[in-house]
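Q: what sequence does this backbone want?
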């Protein structure tokens, strides 16, 4: 923990590790269906990959710079890097234990056997070797390591088998080789044909292991060992905005360089003999601080695609998206949006309403223009296809495409080309500022006037993630809001040359933080005057020091603060004379909690906002974001009731505290599980 002024904060990297531990808790929880526990292991693994590629890489770069400049801060950064390493090793041990001692036996109890090369019957061996020859062999390109001057380049996100070949009688000197597991082109899981009622699944890694004598038949060895290794690299893109050239060209060049980033993590099977490990580390030039022992298998992100086996109790029930009656009973969506604002909550309600809005706009003769921001786009995007269709129908389509959305750069480049080829006007991000706002506005002629219809969201225009993330969005024709939404696109186009005034939206980087600080100040004034004062907020992360210090100030003034924060939280609640009036919970469950909304008492006439932004410095100071007000009294009531459901959770809620213990909120009667209760709440409203 760090101390600034008189306030204590939790380091953001350590807080993130605490969040990923909450994911691990779900994998460990026997009440969670087994296939879902496997999915949480995949989420944990994927999260950890990104953590090393981005956050640990940044910390290592900072430490290197501080040491080179002989800065005193180097000691603190070195301690942080060491603490991260220790916690990661502990979490990795726990991860391995869950998989080996809970998941594999749990599968076996359901007659599903995850077997390796030592557990095959003779008939299964024949089948596996046949599969290897017909499906796998052509993708294997082994590299002999012994006499290479330079160790082969290890690709980020790939896994390799480090192979040791020897003679049982010791008559030949051992040789070492490297085989990349081709999991990008082949399914990681092979389901063996079964003659009984059991299901047998073998990982591609083990199919290769049993085939090593065939792969290396050129040599006269009779003993083979193979251990999985994986290297994670720094994923930072080096985009020099001072050099001439288009942003597209710069990003394309940087993407080609990303796979060559500096190593930040070397994870290996801890069963690997020391002599072999030392040989590889020495040859590969891996630094000591990057080494992390692991289990037999790595790249658990592949377990997102674990075979669909098992009975009904193996998975969470699939929810059926709830209808919005007003939309179902209208011929044209804008007719209903014009009458009254609508809140959409997916995945509980269908994201298809957004696509329907764009499809209708594409063929509506009264619509003449559409403007939209895109940050992360699905691989097969009906949103983009609807926009292209609008262009074909003669509409003027403007797309603000953020090319620097980390790890989605290639996908966004692909869709940029598609949109430009179709004739859409594509605007790119501005130097040093990502555009993270999620908004769309439709321009429609009605009675010789232009009427605007807007959609503003807490999440991306991405149909795939809309089924996995819980987000909320507003459909509105309220001119107070839509006028500001139109202005956002001018703000982006002319940023930062021309600054615009917004009357209702809170827009970063120039206005949002200041307005949120004013709203908190207002609660402080009311608390000091013994008036009602409270702040209820839900977000993914709370990191910004100014916002945290202002919340501490509010707590000390007597403002009651309740926060639901899924991920990073640098604020420490419940500290005497600092945060006694602040309570925080985190909810990790079936869907990724992703919506952000903020409720301020405001002397009894509450202010309600929803946003694409967390209270992180990057969102408030270095991105273009929007927070949009909810003015409709019925929707305000809905938002408050949804927050109360979140706050009442006593099944999946963890208490966030100083020690980061991730203790579950005490159970109660009735039991309240946010995501189930939210679905039931919306179902009753739709009925």
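A:
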């Amino acid at each position: 923990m760090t101390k600034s002024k008189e306030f204590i904060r939790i380091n953001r990297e350590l807080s993130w590790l605490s969040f990923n531990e909450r994911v691990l808790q779900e994998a460990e929880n026997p009440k969670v269906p087994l296939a879902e526990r496997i999915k949480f292991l995949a989420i944990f693994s994927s999260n950890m990959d990104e953590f090393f590629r981005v956050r640990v890489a940044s910390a290592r770069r900072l430490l290197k710079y501080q040491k080179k400049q002989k800065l005193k801060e180097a000691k603190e950064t070195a301690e942080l890097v060491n603490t991260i390493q220790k916690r990661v090793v502990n979490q990795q041990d726990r991860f391995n234990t869950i998989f080996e001692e809970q998941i594999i036996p749990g599968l076996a109890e359901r007659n599903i056997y995850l077997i390796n090369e030592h557990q095959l019957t003779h008939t299964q061996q024949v089948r596996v070797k046949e599969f290897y020859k017909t499906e796998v062999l052509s993708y294997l390109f082994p590299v002999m390591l012994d006499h290479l001057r330079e160790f082969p380049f290890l690709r980020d996100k790939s896994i390799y088998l480090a192979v040791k070949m020897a003679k049982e009688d010791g008559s030949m000197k051992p040789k070492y080789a490297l085989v990349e597991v081709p999991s990008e082109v082949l399914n990681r899981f092979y389901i063996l044909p079964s003659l009984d009622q059991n299901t047998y699944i073998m990982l591609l890694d083990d199919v290769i292991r049993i085939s090593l004598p065939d792969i290396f038949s050129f040599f006269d060895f009779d003993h083979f060992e193979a251990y999985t290794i994986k290297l994670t690299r720094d994923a930072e893109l080096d985009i020099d905005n001072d050099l001439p050239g288009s942003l597209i060209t710069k990003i394309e060049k940087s993407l080609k360089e990303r796979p060559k980033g500096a190593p930040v993590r070397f994870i290996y099977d801890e069963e690997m003999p020391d002599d072999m490990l030392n040989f590889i580390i020495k040859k590969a030039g891996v630094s000591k601080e990057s080494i992390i022992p692991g289990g037999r298998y790595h790249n658990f992100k592949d377990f997102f695609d674990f075979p669909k086996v098992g009975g009904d109790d193996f998975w969470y029930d699939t929810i059926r998206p709830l209808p919005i009656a007003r939309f179902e009973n209208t011929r044209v969506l804008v007719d209903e949006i014009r009458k009254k604002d609508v809140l959409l909550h997916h995945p509980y309600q269908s994201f298809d309403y957004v696509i329907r809005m764009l499809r209708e706009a594409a063929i509506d003769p009264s619509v003449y223009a559409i403007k939209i921001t895109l940050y992360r786009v699905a691989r097969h995007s009906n949103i983009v296809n609807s926009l292209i269709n609008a262009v074909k129908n003669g509409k003027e389509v403007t797309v603000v495409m953020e090319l620097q959305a980390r790890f989605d750069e290639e996908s966004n480049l692909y869709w940029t080309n598609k949109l430009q080829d179709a004739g859409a006007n594509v605007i790119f991000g501005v130097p040093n500022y990502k555009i993270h706002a999620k908004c769309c506005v439709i321009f429609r002629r009605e009675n010789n006037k232009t009427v605007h219809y807007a959609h503003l969201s807490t999440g991306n225009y991405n149909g795939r993630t809309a089924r996995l993330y819980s987000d909320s969005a507003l459909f509105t024709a309220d001119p107070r809001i839509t006028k500001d939404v139109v202005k956002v696109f001018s703000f982006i186009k002319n940023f930062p040359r021309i600054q615009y005034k917004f009357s209702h939206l809170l827009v970063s980087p120039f206005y949002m933080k200041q307005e949120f600080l004013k709203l908190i100040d207002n609660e402080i004034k009311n608390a000091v005057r013994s008036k009602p004062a409270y702040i209820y907020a839900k977000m993914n992360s709370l990191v910004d020091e100014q916002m945290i210090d202002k919340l501490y100030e509010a707590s000390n003034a007597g403002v009651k603060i309740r926060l639901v924060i899924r991920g990073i939280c640098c604020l420490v609640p419940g500290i005497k004379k600092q945060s006694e009036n602040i309570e925080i919970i985190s909810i990790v469950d079936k869907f990724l909690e992703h919506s952000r909304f903020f409720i301020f008492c405001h002397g009894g006439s509450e202010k309600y906002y929803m946003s694409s932004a967390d209270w992180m410095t990057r969102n408030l100071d270095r991105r273009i974001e929007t927070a949009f007000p909810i003015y409709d009294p019925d929707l305000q009531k809905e938002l408050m009731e949804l927050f109360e459901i979140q706050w009442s959770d006593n099944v999946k809620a963890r208490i966030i505290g100083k020690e980061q213990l991730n203790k579950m909120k005490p159970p109660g009667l009735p039991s309240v599980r946010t995501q189930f209760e939210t679905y039931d709440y919306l179902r009753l409203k739709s009925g």
